Amino acid sequence: MRKTGVPPVWERLLDTADLLFYAEGIRAVGIDRVIADSGVSKSTMYVHYRTKEDLVEAYLRRRTDTWRAHVEAAARSSAEDPTDRALAVFDVFHEQLSAPHYRGCPFINAAAEYPHHEGIRQTIAYHRAWLQGLFPSLLEARAEPALAAALVQLIDGAVTAAHLDHDRHAAQTAKATARLLL
């Protein structure tokens, strides 16, 4: 029986992993640290996640599911016009990319740390498939493949510039370019 207000064990593990993996890097954080910081026993952790990589996959899956819901809701509620909805995506990314705690894209970071792990690569591909389908779904009839691909590349460039160049205005620069394309 669980105490009221206390998250389930799997969620505590995932919350702890999310904080540590994003802030410090996945490989830099050992599973023993996640277990200790979450206050969960090692045997309980392995009941929920057989390996650290299973926990990494769950962390990335939750990140993408949460992010996609946030981006889509914000874009769709911002405007009725498809072009304005597509431009609103850049505003949502701006919020994230300009945050003081921004440490790069968790999916790019995971891809660099786990270039050959099939499950992690599949989770990253799941995220990328959503991003590549985002603009066509928002633009509706205006969703030419080349335009959608260019908008995704603008997002990718903004994500990279925000992290590598510490450019907190990268998403707004990308939005200005997207406006020209649209």
CATH top level class name of the largest domain: Mainly Alpha
The CATH architecture assignment of the largest domain turns out to be: Orthogonal Bundle
Task: Tell me the strand percentage band.
Answer: under 5%
Mean pLDDT: 95
Main sheet specs:
none
List how many beta strands DSSP finds.
0
How many domains? The number is 2
**Straight-line distance between termini:** 54 Å
Helix content: over 70%
Query: Which H/E pattern describes the elements?
Result: HHHHHHHHH
Which topology of the largest domain does CATH recognise? Tetracycline Repressor, domain 2
The name of the CATH superfamily of the largest domain reads Tetracycline Repressor, domain 2
> Which stretches of 5+ consecutive residues score pLDDT under 50?
none
Question: What is the alpha-carbon Rg in Å?
Answer: 18 Å
SS-based class: mainly alpha
Shape: elongated
The number of helical runs is 9
Description:
GO terms for molecular function: DNA binding. This is TetR/AcrR family transcriptional regulator. InterPro entries: Homeodomain-like_sf, HTH_TetR, Tet_transcr_reg_TetR-rel_C_sf, TetR_C. Keywords: DNA-binding, Transcription, Transcription regulation. Residues 7-67 form the HTH tetR-type domain. By secondary structure, the chain is an all-alpha fold. It has 2 domains: 1-50, Orthogonal Bundle (Arc Repressor Mutant, subunit A); 52-181, Tetracycline Repressor, domain 2. The protein has 9 helices and no strands. Helix 1 packs across helix 2 and helix 7 (118-139) crosses helix 8 (145-164). The chain starts with 8 loop residues before the first helix and ends with a helix. The model has no long low-confidence stretch (mean pLDDT 95).
